[in-house]
Amino acid sequence: MALSLAVVVVLTTLGASFLNRSLSEDRLGRRTVDRQVAFYLAEAGVDRAIAELRNNPAWSGVSYTPMTGVAGGYEVTVAALSPALKRLTSTGHVPSNIPTAAGYQPWRLETVVEVVTPSVFQFSVFGAERVRMKVNDEDDDGDNDENERPDAHVLIDSYDSSVGTYLSQTPGQQGDVGTNHIEDDAIRLKANTGEGSITVHGQVKVGPNLPDPATAVEITGTVTITGNPPIVSQAQALSLPAVTIPSPCSGGGDMKLKGGEALTLFQSASPYCYTKLDLKDQSSIIVQGNVVIYTGEFTVKQDAQVNAAGRPTQLIIQVTSNKNVKLQDGARVVAGIYAPQSKAKVKDDVVLYGSLVAARIKVKHGAALHYDEALASVGPSSGSAEARLRSWREP
Fold first, then answer.
1. What does the pLDDT look like over 89-109, one tens digit per residue?
2. Is residue 329 within 8 Å of residue 299, measured between CB atoms?
3. Are 111 and 78 in contact (CB under 8 A)?
4. Residue 370's closest CA among 338, 333, 339?
5. Could you state, in order of their start, the residue ranges of all structural domains in the chain?
């Protein structure tokens, strides 16, 4: 009996020990699973935050949100590090957000997200309906302009004004030419051999979902496109919102400058509104700070200059009507020009630093168009914001 009792005691002790170990391993396993679930819930919070910021860059986070089908949820806070950078803190909770709950497990993630609202200025030259570039003496497009220049050249390239001036940099390859249309010759580039040339340091981009984008581009003569591939179809059409005139607005009426007259515009009085903005005969506009101009018509000619000493990001010109935009006769313009309803004409040795967006664009008789890459996030918004993940850590 003594031996049997001893055996029972030993077996009971061993059984209790094994049972306790099994229960401990079970608790450890559950804890590990719950922590993994909390991690996935924290990830879900980050994904939610990125999606929300794309639709609303001012989104400020969300309080504890239970998940369907899972014992737990997440909460997200947003702190602005700069106008574009946001720090997201997402915490996953299992089985709830009550720390005293049985089996409570949290997991915290910190990420930095850059929220960029793409502007309409994604191209050097963008004609929503069509683009025509011609440097020869064949008047095949219905334009009866005189003084054709068969020896003219068109140059399109890019630089970044946030880094320095155009002359201080090696010209870039982001000088894209684009349109939203996909019909035959939506973009036409013509420079008959021996009669000038067209050089595009970038890509030619036509409307979306075109199996063979080259069918929408007509090329004749000495035309060079350096992009790889040179002709592509956009992933989606560039959205061009209507121009809305704000109130209040400085200025008003027609503004005509000539004979070397100069007009200085100040950031403190911006935006400015005119029914017509017309510069000629070596007149100029000088910009102090960042300025936006709304105008019904825009003409710069006869060696007139607009923001010549500034950066394109400092001056955004928005055309409010379907009246023509004309840059000609040696004009020098440093700005982003947005004219979604207008026909724009660029000719006779014009130099544009910035970007030109219009319904239809015609470039003739020689021009140099230097796209400013810094404009890609400046000016009127085109589509939803982009939220880009910059860093990730588990504090």
1. 999 999 999 999 988 999 999
2. no
3. no
4. 333
5. 2-118+385-393, 125-377
CATH of 2-118+385-393, one of 3.30.1300, 3.40.50, 1.10.3470, 3.90.550: 3.30.1300
198 beta partners:
154, 223
Quick check: 333 and 121 in contact, CB under 8 A? no
Measured CA to CA in angstroms, residue 56 lies from 52, 115, 355, 385 at distances of 6, 10, 26, 8
8 Å CB contact between 280 and 259: no
Residue 42: exposure state from Cβ atoms within 10 A (0-12, 13-18, ≥19)? buried
Q: Which amino acid is at 93?
A: H
Of 18-22, 295-299, 367-371, the range with the lowest mean pLDDT is 18-22
Q: Give the number of other Cβ atoms within 10 Å of residue 131's Cβ.
A: 27
Tell me the per-residue pLDDT of 133-181, one tens digit each, with 9 for 90 and over: 998 655 544 554 555 555 679 999 999 999 999 999 999 999 999 999 9
- Measure the CA–CA gap between 329 and 336, rounded to whole angstroms: 19
Pick the closest to residue 357 from 298, 310, 278, 274 (CA basis). Answer: 298
H-helix or E-strand containing 24?
helix 2-55
